[in-house]
């Protein structure tokens, strides 16, 4: 069953939580791992106190602070109702307001390239930072603005749709000055995919 939403403006919040809507521009990752394309994985860099949301094949968001999966999985209201009213109950899905706190504005990294490493049977996708001005933040914690790119490793799983829960988990492999390396895959024992 197809759904249509009458919205306009910046659809990033909707697409990051539901990247299946953006399939036209995602042909390369779709060929590499079509079952993984609509998957959002959430993990944490506990040393830096960052929340990382990977919408595989589309974008990665890095937030200052630890945010719950329940909050991150809801599309942020970067879009407007077509009828120009601020009625956020008019949608068939829950949304979350864009944070008013300048420190919680996400740093966004868009897919720049993706390939399959045949020696490890893993996809390697790279996401480059969307260079926009961020408001000043006084929090005394590492600044995601120092990141240039995020690299994501993921094994394709064509049977993902038949597994429960379908959401993958992600793990921070390396967090250096200019780059973040993340592994996305089947949740391991003790890992939580949703709250």
Automatic annotation (TrEMBL):
PANTHER family membership: FRINGE-RELATED
Name listed for the protein in its UniProt record: Fringe-like protein
